[in-house]
Amino acid sequence: MKPLWRLNKYLYKYKGLILLGIVFTVISNIFVIIPAQLVRLAIDYVVESFSIYQPLEQGGMGNQAQDIFLKFVFVFGILILVMALLRGIFLFFIRQTLIIMSRKVEYDMKNEIYDHYQKLPLSFYRKNSTGDLMARITEDVSRVRMYLGPAIMYGLNLLILFPLVISYMITVNPMLTLYALLPLPVLSLSIYYVNNMINERSEKIQRSLSGLSTFVQEAFSGIRVLKAFVRESDSVNDFATASEDYKVKSIRLTRVNALFFPIIMALVGVSTIITVYVGGLQVISGEIGYGVIAEFILYVNMLTWPVTSLGWVTSIVQRAAASQTRINEFLDEKNDILNTNDIKATITGTVEMDNVSFIYPDSGIQALKNVSFKIKEGQTLGIIGTTGSGKSTIANLLMRMYDPNSGVIKVDGKPIDSLSVSDLRRQIGYVPQDVFLFSDSIGNNIAFGIEESDPRIIEQAAKDADVYQNIIEFPKGFETMLGERGITLSGGQKQRVSIARAIAKEPKILILDDCLSAVDTKTENVILTALKNIMQNRTSIIISHRVSSAKLADQIIVLDDGRVIEQGNHKTLMAQKGVYAELYEKQTQAGESVDN
Ligand SMILES: Nc1ncnc2c1ncn2[C@@H]1O[C@H](COP(=O)(O)OP(=O)(O)OP(=O)(O)O)[C@@H](O)[C@H]1O
Fold first, then answer.
1. Cα–Cα 20 to 30 A to 584, which of 212, 297, 372, 483?
2. What value of ipTM does the predicted structure carry?
3. In CATH, what number does 432-506 get?
4. Separation of CA 130 and ligand 1 centre (Å)
């Protein structure tokens, strides 16, 4: 239960709706009890009237007596109908307050969780799978809503109806009350166990279903590989096996589900039989009238659903508590990228790393070892190195996706952690290695980082990234939709749209992380020359495998296994005849042989 306390702030926020819900529950229950009493009165009246009817009939007043008798029965009937109608109206109001309250909290919770997710660092996303993140904001929140809505509604109903009905039953006949209620605790316990079994099996089905959807999703996204490797029949067999598992689990659930109503019916039946038997004995001994038996049968039926719901509510609350624990786990995650000072300043662009070492917290891999370099504003730094040498890690640290374990990173001479993170990121244009574009128009993708989108800026960015011509050749130009239901750009086009997105925000520091790998050297030259113009007086960092990308940089560092092994410009590095020179020779030779 303790994890659910976190929801109290929401219950407090919507206290008005809850209070109204309680009032409506009390009123609706009053309209449940009164008809039962009316039924008792009506039956007792019928029995009594019947005993005096015969003498009256013999006295010639039969017709008059019959008229009065029918009138009374008719009035009782109408009254019972009116009560049922009023009860229905108040039940509607209960749902309009309590269930609506739960929907409002669900909405608030989803927003709170999403907002918190957005604040968490990249390391959090590395530790937790996307499926898990999605499950907590959808399925877990839904389970918690079941507690806030139906569980609170039925719980309140139980708390109000029970004392009302039972105290009334006791005043009518304590002995009969005891006998009539005897089977109800058994009903509640059985429903609790059956419900737990249902939940357990439903969860297994859910897992089986999500496994099935992941399988299908992967098969469809990898359909090209699947077909190319002629694995269709294997895929069909695997699917059949996964579906079989789902079928078996569904059948097991149906078996338990089938127990739910028979158990209720059987135990209510037992209650009714006991009431009729014990009540009958009391009628024979003249302690009560026939009407009491009918009234008690109605009470037993009235209590059936609340008692059933006790078992059901308990299991909902348990599930909600488990879900809320999972939600709290993420809500308690803290952002560890903190600012010592929240300096917000326009960056001029001097970037410096001093003896920086970094170990990825999740994998324990040391990606950087004592890396040092300095670039002044307006300069270009080229970072070259083999795969896994730590190039992208430098970009990650400059963007403050992670903080280094030791050493200092400075921007404009100030330690990077003294600057406001969002302000820093806003002034950096980052083109990641693995291009990600949103399912939106090309224009909106390019304008992603700018506050006020301006078509001229978007077009200019597209021209500088050498993708303008491609875009306007699409029938819808910049309005062309990307993503699943849109068109598919080629690898090189995607990279260039991603570059356009970074330069459209006119960054003070531009980081290109191996983002020219899918374009030919001619396009690479066009883009680099354009960048040289637009990045005048601003800093560029170009990470690449290809020497051709870094060659024009003012300063080049060569990384190997997280260490800087060579540093200089193209000329000095060529003169050193080290790794860089060797790489240059190899790559230019390969380029020539391809060109030939
Ligand atoms: N998010 C991460 N979590 C854990 N380890 C990581 C992470 N990213 C990279 N690494 C590891 O850190 C090392 C350096 O990776 P990095 O991505 O910086 O290399 P890179 O030089 O950019 O390589 P490539 O040219 O192939 O992109 C690698 O051994 C890699 O496995």
1. 372
2. 0.95
3. 3.40.50.300
4. 20
